[in-house]
C-alpha cells in the first residue's frame, strides 16, 4: 500500500483494527507499531511508549526489532512528548540494556527520532524539544548513578540543529550590498 501512496488507508486500518489484529494473532503489537512508525503516524510513539513502559514494568526481556531503521524518517512533531517521555523512562531504568539489548535500544531509537523530527521541522520545534529535554530531572539520574551522556548529547545535537535552522545563507545580491556598504573596511 505504501508503494501505491495509500498510506492513509494503511494507517486507518492499523489504528482502527489495532486490538483486533493483535487478538486474532494477525500481527504482533510490535509489528503494528513498527508499521505505524514507518507510515509516519503521529501517535505511533505513544503506542511505543506504552509498550516499552509495560515491558519495563513487567521486567520482560525482548528487543524491539526494526528492519530498515524506519524511525529515522519519522517527522511528526506531535510525537515529541511521547518520545521524550520514553527517553526519560529508559534513561532512568538501570537495566535497560538487559531488557532491550543495545542495537535497538529505546534510548537510541528515541534520540535518533527526536533528531530526525528536529531536522525536518524548524527552530520552533527545536526549542520545544529542548524545553522537553530540560524537563528531564538530571539530578535524579545523577543520584541513581546513571550516565548523563545520552541526555547531554541529544541536547547538544538539538542545539546544533536549532542554530542550523536559524542561520540562513546570504544571496549574492546581499553579499555584494554588504561589501559595497562596507568597502572602507575591505581596503587592500
Description:
The chain is mainly alpha-helical. The chain has one domain. The chain contains eleven helices and no strands. The longest helix is centred in the last third of the chain and has 18 residues, at 149-166. It starts with 6 loop residues before the first helix and ends in a 7-residue tail after the last helix.
Notable traits:
188 residues; mainly alpha; flat
What's this model, at a glance?
The chain is mainly alpha-helical and 188 residues long.
Distance between the termini: 64 Å
Which band does the percent of strand residues land in? Answer: under 5%
**Averaged pLDDT:** 88
List segments where confidence is low: pLDDT < 50 over at least 5 consecutive residues. Answer: none
The geometry reads as: flat
Topology (elements, then pairings):
Blueprint lengths: L6 H10 L1 H6 L5 H10 L5 H14 L22 H12 L4 H5 L5 H15 L2 H12 L3 H6 L5 H18 L5 H10 L7
Amino acid at each position: 500500500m505504501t508503494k501505491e501512496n495509500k498510506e492513509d488507508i494503511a494507517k486507518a486500518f492499523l489504528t482502527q483494527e489495532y486490538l483486533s489484529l493483535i487478538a486474532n494473532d494477525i500481527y504482533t503489537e510490535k509489528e503494528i507499531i513498527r508499521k505505524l512508525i514507518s507510515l509516519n503516524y503521529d501517535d505511533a510513539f505513544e503506542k511505543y511508549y506504552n509498550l516499552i513502559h509495560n515491558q519495563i514494568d513487567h521486567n520482560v526481556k525482548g528487543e524491539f526489532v526494526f528492519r530498515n531503521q524506519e524511525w529515522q524518517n519519522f517527522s511528526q512533531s506531535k510525537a515529541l512528548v511521547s518520545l521524550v517521555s520514553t527517553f526519560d523512562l529508559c534513561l532512568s531504568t538501570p537495566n535497560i540494556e538487559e531488557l532491550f539489548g543495545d542495537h535497538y535500544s529505546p534510548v537510541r531509537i528515541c534520540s535518533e527520532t527526536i533528531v530526525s523530527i528536529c531536522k525536518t521541522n524548524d527552530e520552533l520545534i527545536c526549542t520545544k524539544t529542548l524545553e522537553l529535554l530540560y524537563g528531564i530531572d538530571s539530578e535524579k539520574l545523577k543520584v541513581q548513578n546513571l550516565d548523563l551522556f545520552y541526555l547531554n548529547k541529544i541536547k547538544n545535537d538539538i542545539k546544533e540543529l536549532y542554530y542550523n535552522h536559524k542561520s540562513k545563507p546570504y544571496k549574492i545580491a546581499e553579499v555584494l550590498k554588504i561589501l559595497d556598504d562596507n568597502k572602507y573596511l575591505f581596503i587592500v
